[in-house]
UniProtKB/TrEMBL annotation:
Keywords for the protein's UniProt record, in alphabetical order: Redox-active center
InterPro entries: Selenoprotein_Rdx-typ (IPR011893), Thioredoxin-like_sf (IPR036249)
Biased composition, class Polar residues, residue ranges: 9-25
Protein name: Selenoprotein domain protein
Feature: compositional bias, Low complexity: 34-43
Gene3D superfamilies to which the protein is assigned, alphabetical: Glutaredoxin
Ranges where the record places region Disordered: 1-43
Length: 202
């Protein structure tokens, strides 16, 4: 009879607790921390960043998309990003987030330290439907965005239309009251005649 020596198998029962922990960690590595991803997503924003919050209950999505299209057509790469943000409660706001200098590139790197440069982002509400009353005209909205993104830029016919409207409003505001009174006195007989003719005869 031949006896074969018994060799124990290196199973889990023969391993120490520390070795089991090491094997478990190697087989199931811990998930990566979400903090670097959050910081990375913040750095991926391109500025100036313009957001349009629109009320979905009021069905203002097409209006918001139209404004976004007009702004992108005019300013092109001067805008780093235009985002449509669904909201409720009759909200319609246009907000721009911009850094100093108005650059649309991502965060720069400090040449001396090699780390990212600390950037302060400023939030400016260009238009609020409840605050300003109604929706903006496209030329007015373009002018408001231009004043933040590139104040020295000439918008051509948009600026000419705004200047013409401002001059017309100023002229109407400075119109003498004598002209209004004269107009009323000149047309009073005509108004009386029309009133007399329109009165039915008994």
């Amino acid at each position: 009879m031949i006896s074969i020596p018994h060799t124990p198998n290196p199973n889990a029962s023969s391993l120490s607790t520390r070795e089991q922990d090491q094997l478990t960690t190697a087989a199931n590595p811990p998930p990566a921390s979400s903090a670097p991803q959050s910081q990375q997503s913040q750095q991926e924003y391109h500025y100036p960043r313009l957001t349009i919050h629109y009320c979905t209950q009021c069905k203002w999505m097409l209006r918001a998309a139209y404004f976004a299209q007009e702004l992108l057509s005019t300013f092109s790469t001067q805008l780093g990003e235009v985002a449509l943000v669904p909201a409720t409660g009759g909200r319609f706001t246009v907000t721009v987030y911009h850094r100093s200098g108005g650059s649309a590139t991502p965060a720069a790197t400090d040449e001396e330290s090699g780390g990212p440069v600390t950037v302060t982002v400023t939030e400016t509400v260009l238009w609020d439907r409840k605050r300003d009353g109604g929706f903006p005209e496209v030329k007015v909205l373009k002018s408001l965005v231009r004043n933040v993104v590139d104040p020295g830029r000439d918008l051509g016919h948009t600026d000419r239309a705004l200047n013409k409207a401002a001059e017309k409003k100023e002229v109407e505001g400075n119109e003498p009251q004598e002209n209004v009174m004269q107009y009323n006195s000149e047309h009073t007989p005509c108004l009386r005649q029309i009133e007399r003719l329109s009165t039915p005869r008994l």
